[in-house]
Amino acid sequence: MTTAPAGSSRDLAHPTCAEIRLEGVLHALSDPMRLRIVRELAADGDELSCSHFDLPVTKSTTTHHFRVLRESGVIRQVYRGTAKMNGLRADDLDTLFPGLIGCVLAAAARQESERGDG
């Protein structure tokens, strides 16, 4: 894995675009909590802090979900002051797997809508 340029012990490792694997992305998106994070990031379109997300899991589990998303290449995390900011790597993912994120997000929205109507 590649890291951001040296300079801070708070730099987080991220895979390069060439290192992102389809199976890793699909694994990351297969968990409901991680999919929820990705949906919120996509809907907002900007970086969101970890504290923005109100997930019904422990803090350590939330940290694990963010790590899986980062290490699979789905999100990019950077520190801005004391906040860890998260952004969807939509451009990288669309370059590698055209339409994948859009289809997954549309299917998740459709599924949520059907559950709400049921």
Explain this structure to me?
This protein is α+β, with helices and mostly antiparallel strands. The protein has a single domain, classed as Orthogonal Bundle (Arc Repressor Mutant, subunit A), CATH 1.10.10. The chain has helices at 22-29, 32-44, 59-72, 90-96, 100-117; strands at residues 2-3, 13-14, 48-49, 75-80, 83-88. Strand 4 and strand 5 (83-88) form a beta hairpin. The chain starts with a strand and ends with a helix.
Summarize the structure.
The protein has 118 residues and is of the alpha+beta class. The protein has helices at residues 22-29, 32-44, 59-72, 90-96, 100-117; strands spanning 2-3, 13-14, 48-49, 75-80, 83-88.
Task: Give the topology.
Elements: E1 2-3, E2 13-14, H1 22-29, H2 32-44, E3 48-49, H3 59-72, E4 75-80, E5 83-88, H4 90-96, H5 100-117
Antiparallel strand pairs: 1-2, 3-5, 4-5
InterPro entries: ArsR-like_HTH, HTH_ArsR_DNA-bd_dom, WH-like_DNA-bd_sf, WH_DNA-bd_sf
Protein name: Helix-turn-helix domain-containing protein
Domain HTH arsR-type: 14-108
